[in-house]
Inverse folding.
């Protein structure tokens, strides 16, 4: 059975990134059903990853909408797994860039701070870690890392991305991701021992 056309059964059988790559290719040909299936399969995962970086549900919803609009328009530019690109990594790269754009827009239009009594948004997981809520020693060790090493840890540990997806997100080769992850672990181990 073709997992792309196999309906709900394919989900229970374990869908691979190759399946998503096929859906993206079908989207490039204007297949609306493929787009709907791609959204159904990947939007929950993207929403979770976005929420780890942004606690504002309105921004997350806007970023998801902008992401899938960009996917529909740019599906033909997806190079595919033939060149080592992951469909999920490609989607996450689009979403991450849209989130950065949303943060920039928010910074430009930022109004006065929230009035007393208004609920504040919860910080993202990496903000909690860096603020010391997971332990002052860990926060200090994380702050001591270079931004490049922190980015790799954030993507791989907090966002749960693979080496390939981290490579796509950060725009560096997989070997560089592996090297930075190793250096970060060594530096954290030394700082915490």
């Amino acid at each position: 059975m073709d997992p792309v056309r196999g309906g709900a059964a394919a989900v229970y059988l374990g869908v691979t990134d190759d399946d998503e790559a096929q859906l993206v290719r079908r989207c490039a040909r204007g297949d609306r059903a493929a787009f709907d299936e791609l959204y159904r399969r990947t939007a929950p995962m993207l929403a979770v990853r976005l929420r780890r970086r942004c606690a504002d549900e309105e921004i997350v919803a806007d970023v998801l909408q902008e992401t899938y609009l960009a996917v529909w328009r740019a599906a033909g530019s997806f190079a595919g797994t033939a060149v080592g690109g992951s469909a999920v990594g490609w989607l996450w790269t689009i979403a991450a860039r849209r989130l950065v754009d949303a943060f920039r827009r928010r910074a430009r239009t930022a109004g006065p701070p929230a009035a007393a009594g208004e609920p504040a948004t919860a910080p993202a997981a990496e903000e909690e870690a860096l603020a010391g809520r997971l332990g002052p020693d860990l926060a200090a060790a994380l702050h001591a890392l270079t931004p490049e090493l922190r980015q790799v840890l954030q993507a791989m540990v907090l966002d749960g991305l693979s080496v390939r997806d981290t490579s796509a997100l950060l725009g560096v080769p997989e070997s560089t991701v592996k090297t930075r992850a190793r250096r970060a672990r060594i530096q954290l181990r030394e700082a915490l021992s």
